[in-house]
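Subject: Predicted fold for Retinol dehydrogenase 8-like, 317 residues

User T.R. writes:
Posting the sequence so we have a shared reference for the thread.
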Amino acid sequence: MANSGQKVVLITGCSSGIGLRIAVTLAKDEKKRYHVIATMRDLKKKDKLVEAAGDTYGKTLVLLPLDVCSDESVKQCINNVKDRHIDILINNAGVGLLGPVESISIEEMKRVFETNFFGVVRMIKEVMPDMKKRRSGHIVVMSSVMGLQGVVFNDVYTASKFAMEGFCESMAVQLMKFNIRLSMIEPGPVHTEFETKMMEDVAKMEYPGADADTVRYFKDVYLPSSIDIFEAMGQTPEDIAKCTKKVIESSSPRFRNLTNNLYTPIVALKYADETGGLSVNTFYNLLFNFGPLMHITMSILKCLTCSCLRRRTISPN
Ligand SMILES: NC(=O)C1=CN([C@@H]2O[C@H](COP(=O)(O)OP(=O)(O)OC[C@H]3O[C@@H](n4cnc5c(N)ncnc54)[C@H](OP(=O)(O)O)[C@@H]3O)[C@@H](O)[C@H]2O)C=CC1
Ligand SMILES: CC1=C(/C=C/C(C)=C/C=C/C(C)=C/C=O)C(C)(C)CCC1
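User M.O. replies:
I've generated the structure tokens; pasting them so everyone works from the same file.
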């Protein structure tokens, strides 16, 4: 149970990656300011979190089951929280989807929206009324740079994050009237199981319905560039957890919070030209005309951001 003065933080999707790391980082806060309710849809996957939490497990960190795709699971989980009192809700659970749209069934696309979009809506609908009554609270959403700008062959994942951006940008205004803050975290590539799961799915894919040229552009042009980008600018879940902690500890948290300085110029293209021409043409050229040049640029970037220099270039601290 939370001590008086401790903030109750509920996080979704804590079995791995960013969610796990945020849960552990907050539970290990030196001043013990947080009572962390780490949730996951399958408690059989709890070992990694329990091990990382160490002696905070059962003290500043407790576990509850929660599947963001189920109305019943969400309701039951929130009803199990003392007085349904949550100070900070961190919507982290999410799934990726990669590949030519022709090869992806509508069912698979719906699953992505069910998790990444309706999952967040479901959580906010359940938690927000109590926050409104108390005239306090902070809702954090793990969005993505792909919630701000489309990336080729990530069409459906991008769309699900855009949907959430639109929903939250609209909600933020109303929530402000109730003294509830809403913050989006916008990571670029992060080394987690998200990346591994997507690569495994891609390896299994047979691309039914996609023509040979499209499959070639995906496998031989997009995938190698994407791997380069992950290698050159990928952050760690620790980086994202530190940024998220900073956001929840800020006295005036920003609505949008990019976590990766290296990715900022890519997102800025969209805002530099409202017709969209600059970003669409630049991405086209980067991918199809300057692929080898991009590989070299990314290799140089990777070298410049290796651990000895990283501290000087990016600081999630
Ligand atoms: N990695 C990256 O490059 C980036 C990731 N993000 C976002 O960060 C968030 C976390 O992803 P990341 O840590 O990288 O990936 P992981 O795959 O490591 O973690 C995703 C988590 O979401 C959980 N999850 C999936 N579906 C549900 C569900 N229906 N109910 C509850 N939990 C669920 C997974 O649980 P289970 O183990 O049961 O599947 C897992 O705990 C996502 O929203 C993602 O979109 C944003 C930008 C970049
Ligand atoms: C290939 C390619 C790109 C790829 C970007 C990638 C691969 C971003 C990954 C972001 C992730 C994984 C977000 C998760 O939410 C750019 C830079 C747009 C430039 C054009 C070519």
